[in-house]
Design a protein that fits this description.
- It is built from 29 helices and two strands.
- It is mainly alpha-helical.
- Helix 7 runs antiparallel to helix 18 and helix 27 runs antiparallel to helix 28.
Length: 678
């Protein structure tokens, strides 16, 4: 009762704080900045908060909080534009939205998809803020009760969604997840520092691959290349199609799905380290599980938009729970948020238990600001949707070079290394073939995201469990099978059982027709050979570092078995079997006006020119050549579009205080920014 007695006055004080006109002005400014950041694929909340960080020093605490919360709250809403209209995940929290939102846009239902997404995002954001209000009071014992076994089970629950998203050939989806897991283990191991995939002898891979690069490569590049080959607009209709009210009606008709996925978002957001990277996949898997007719998923099912969008906004409220209660960042953006709060005012505010004790009014100000920012952000997104949605009716050949430009810039910012662009191209090539042969890209990405948590929690839990079992069998079993673990285990088993039973009716990559045996068999053989290499590389690690080698070895063995089963099935089954799915056999890709390799060569050309002359000089050459030769535009229009692209890129880099990828030219000639480094 004393807790509520202290909380109610603090809630009132917080309400009075944020209703000041200047605070509302900073909140709106943060929302506008977040909207602009979220629209550009690959940037997201981390880039936005990094932009604000230099301005936080000495700023009035409530104004700084308003600016940051405004930005954090709206990015998961505004990144829907890229996911729905362009088929490019705006951030790691909007990847699942692409699966059904983009097909809806291509069918001329962009407005319906966007309105359903915005209504879901607003509802999820408000649910997240409401839960945050309560959790500030009661969540401390809940979060503290999550030990290593519980964290491991949450991670395994995330992996179990592979069963839902595996597609018509479930074992192919499992192999795709295994591929994501082993790709995620590349680099130095956390436990002992052993170097996995040492045979590569590539220093860049020591730190592993970045999520931004893998996400853009697996989802963005395949869709851009596919649309560019067809040489048409994203949407065949010049209108937005079904109206805004239909999307809102869709959301209302699925209100309980939105409620459940919002709760999923809050719960997953609470667990540090998972957050936006996995929450939308869990919500998407739940949406599929709870839908009777699953045939439309992957080709324009509105429930596939409502579920992920409800969860990724609610996740922000959940992510603030460990951040505010314990000073533990629930995600990368929350880590920057903690650092920014420390810079506010005189530095007297410190995120964690002391903030709840000494600055409870500021803590609840964050709650109110989060709720208000979701409302303002949704209104602004709806107001600007008409203008942004018109992008779907523009000939895609005019948009593609700008998208190549943006994702290359975003990929480079992840590590400030030219090798980031090479990695983007390589992962993009993998994504193209996964999409072509109906290997589940969501399953691959889930595996990649969860590879580190699986390894870390398994090793740590094993070490502690070993000591507990030395004490007694009872102590060991009690540690491993806590009540929370048992509940999560039951949920995971149910999820896997339902997923396997329903896999054949789920089109993870849409309806892909069967082709000849040759191409799918060659791709499967290459994937199998890669798993053999990963197993061999892991086996080279000393047995003294068993924790570094066991996970990649086990995953490789399971994946090799899956691939061998697929090889046997391919040998025995006729060409008409769905195991031989190939987009080049039938459909839009097969009928495309341009071939895959000539189209991909344009993107490769941008990277090659960047390696020689630096990014900005290469960008100018690339854009001018592309618009004149590939798009067939006049010299005047080509020059104008090139200037717009280069100036916009320079403005963005200057605003974010970022450099461009250098080339060999910069090693010999000292050039001023932006042609050289600042």
């Amino acid at each position: 009762m004393d807790v509520f007695t202290q909380a109610l006055p603090a809630l009132g004080d917080a309400f009075a704080l944020i209703l000041q006109p200047i605070v509302l002005g900073y909140l709106i400014l943060g929302v506008v900045m977040g909207l602009c950041i979220g629209v550009f694929p690959g940037l997201g909340g981390i880039a936005g908060l990094s932009l604000l960080l230099p301005f936080m020093f000495g700023m009035d605490p409530i104004l700084g909080l308003a600016l940051m919360i405004g930005m954090v709250a709206v990015v998961p809403t505004s990144d829907t534009f890229a996911s729905v209209l362009m088929g490019i995940p705006g951030s790691s929290a909007s990847q699942a939205t692409v699966l059904d939102g983009f097909p809806m846009a291509k069918k001329g239902e962009a407005a319906r998809a966007l309105s359903a997404a915005f209504a879901s995002s607003l509802f999820g954001g408000l649910i997240g803020a409401s839960f945050l209000t309560v959790f500030i009071l009661v969540a401390r014992p809940i979060v503290l009760s999550f030990g290593l076994p519980e964290m491991l089970m949450i991670t395994i629950l995330g992996l179990s969604m592979v069963a839902i998203l595996a597609g018509r050939v479930a074992i192919k989806g499992i192999a795709a997840a295994g591929l994501g897991l082993v790709v995620g283990t590349i680099g130095e191991a956390d436990a002992g520092g052993s170097l996995r995939m040492a045979s590569y002898d590539i220093p860049y891979l020591t730190d592993g691959l970045k999520l931004v690069i893998v996400g853009l490569g697996i989802f963005a590049i395949p869709e851009i290349i596919s649309l560019l080959r067809q040489d048409r607009a994203i949407s065949k209709s010049a209108t937005l199609g079904a109206g805004w009210f239909e999307g809102v009606k869709d959301w209302w008709a699925n209100i309980w799905l939105s409620v459940r996925c919002s709760i999923i978002g809050v719960v997953v957001g609470i667990i540090p380290g998972l957050g936006g990277s996995v929450v939308d996949w869990i919500a998407y898997g739940h949406s599929v599980q709870t839908t009777k007719d699953k045939s439309n998923f992957g080709s324009g099912e509105v429930r596939g938009v409502i579920g992920p969008e409800s969860s990724n906004n609610a996740k922000e409220g959940g992510g603030l729970v460990p951040t505010l209660l314990f000073g533990i960042p629930g995600s990368g953006s929350m880590a920057i948020f903690i650092g920014a709060v420390a810079l506010l005012g005189s530095g007297s505010i410190e995120v964690g238990p002391s903030m709840l004790k000494d600055n409870l009014n500021f803590t609840y100000s964050i709650v109110w600001l989060l709720a208000l920012a979701n409302v303002v952000g949704t209104v602004l997104c709806i107001a600007s949707s008409g203008m942004i949605a018109k992008l779907t009716t523009i000939r895609f050949t005019l948009l593609a070079p700008f998208l190549f430009m943006l994702i290359s810039f975003a990929a480079f910012q992840s590590g400030q290394n030219f090798a980031d662009l090479v990695a983007l191209f390589a992962i993009g090539l993998l994504g193209i073939f996964l999409r072509r042969f109906d290997w589940s890209r969501p399953a691959f990405l889930i595996g990649f995201v969860l590879s580190n948590p699986v390894e870390k929690f398994t090793n740590q839990a094993f070490q502690i469990a070993r000591f507990r079992f030395r004490e007694s069998m009872e102590a060991g079993l009690e540690y491993i099978f806590s009540p929370i673990v048992l509940v999560l285990l039951v949920i995971t088993v149910i999820s896997i059982a339902i997923g396997i039973r329903q896999a054949k009716s789920i089109l993870a990559e849409g309806d892909v027709k069967s082709g000849s045996k040759r191409a799918p068999f060659i791709f499967l053989s290459l994937i199998t050979a890669y798993f053999v290499v990963t197993y061999w590389n892991a086996s080279l690690i000393s047995d003294r570092m068993m924790g570094d080698k066991i996970i990649p070895m086990v995953i490789s063995i399971v994946a090799i078995i899956c691939c061998l089963v697929l090889i046997v099935k391919m040998i025995r089954q006729p060409e008409t079997d769905m195991i031989f799915a190939d987009r080049e056999a039938d459909g839009e890709d097969a009928e495309a006006a341009h071939g895959l390799w000539p189209t991909l060569a344009w993107f490769a050309g941008l990277l090659a020119l960047s390696g020689l002359f630096g990014f900005i000089i290469a960008l100018g050459i690339f854009l001018l050549s592309f618009f004149k030769i590939r798009a067939g535009e006049t010299w005047r229009k080509s020059v104008m579009l090139t200037v717009i692209g280069v100036v916009f890129m320079c403005f963005m880099a200057w605003t974010l205080n970022r450099d461009f990828p250098p080339g060999l030219l910069q090693d010999f000639v000292d050039l001023p920014w932006p042609l050289g480094s600042a």
